[in-house]
Amino acid sequence: MIRTLRTVAIGAAAAALVVGMTASPAAAKTRTFTDKRTDAVAALDITKVKVKNKKHAVVVRMTVPDFDKSKLGSVMLSIRTKSKGRPTFMVTKARIEGAGWMPPMFLDPTSEDIIVACKGDRVTFGAKSVTVRVPQRCLGANRKAVRVQPVLMGRDPELEMLEELPEPGPDAPLDAYPTFSARMSPWVGYR
Ligand SMILES: [Ca+2]
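The joint structure predicted for all components is written out below.
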């Protein structure tokens, strides 16, 4: 009898847990990756990348402990989805010297226009972080895993003219996770 009661109690607790997990917004799939330190100037040095692949949006937060927005020229985020052909989308927000920050620009490789409007995409700046939010509907109504590559670039106009990327190090005026190559983060499951 005691054993039966225990079994029932454990079953009820497990059921409550499952219901709780399903109901909780924290059920979104979240993964946090670590980026190298001192592979870029401190103002732009990404140390952590947190990726949430939520029901309605992919949200990527870059932690930059010594963030200095005045040193930032542009933010780029590539997002690859696990759908057919593994399309890679990109959102970028750039500062135009003398004119200030432009609204985010969204690139969709599956669209003929390439540059398309993505209502609801956002790049926001915190004291020690940069966060990019892209609605799933802009990612081909994505419901699959994603991988990402965030990039922070300094505002030196000569940076865009360089034919070779500067070597990673404490003077490099740009940082990317995991690197500037074609590599991207591991997959982050949907929800
Ligand atoms: Ca870094």
